[in-house]
Amino acid sequence: IILNEANRQDAEAMLARVQFSLDSKSKDPLSADHIIPLGASGDFRLSPYTFVVMTGNSPRDDTGRVEQSRPFQRRISLVTLPNPLSLALETDTEQGFRTRIVNLWNRCATESLLMPEQTADFRQKVEDPANAGSLAVLRTVLKLIHKHGAGLSYGLLRKLLVLVANQVALGNASFNQALDGALVGGVGATLSGAKVVDGASIRQNLIATDAGIATVFPQFCEWVGKSLSDPGELGFVAPYF
Known about the structure:
With 241 residues, this protein is mainly α. It has 12 helices and 4 strands. 20% of the residues are buried.
């Protein structure tokens, strides 16, 4: 039994009917331990080899998380998985990071507004050495927002790529300009996912002169300056989409 986003539901109540079977040490399928009463539907049997796997993103300040009782929590074996993108950001070379983005684009190209014959052209823009600087700074931005506890995933990177491709397809911007605008939307939505964002700290790091972000992504840095909280304050960030 697989329960996705289990931390956003009362998983304990959902499993109440089958908990006795799950807790039983008997592996006999005919044992009364594995009889599950379902009211008017009658009694059913659960396999003694049933396992429940619950998955979910569960930061401590997750606004949608449902608290479970301590006895229920003691039954659970918690497996924490590392963030694969954060590991890649630390270990990839610049060329390796560009290759990772190209591979991701190959999987999400159909989600953009580009016609099939245009997807290869966009891939060439990603691989173009002239855009290597923009992608290097993008990597810096992603590492910074992850450092400050905001969400970081391949889903975010995928969304950024589609937003950039859409702007390029519409002919409204160059690759760098499109990436600048996509950061406003993509990172804005990511920062809004945290219950409380230390906006002043993020702003200070994102628009620091030595990071070079303001030069490459002026629109994004303007958004950072206007949207994140003033020094010493904690504030919410409104999502862009």
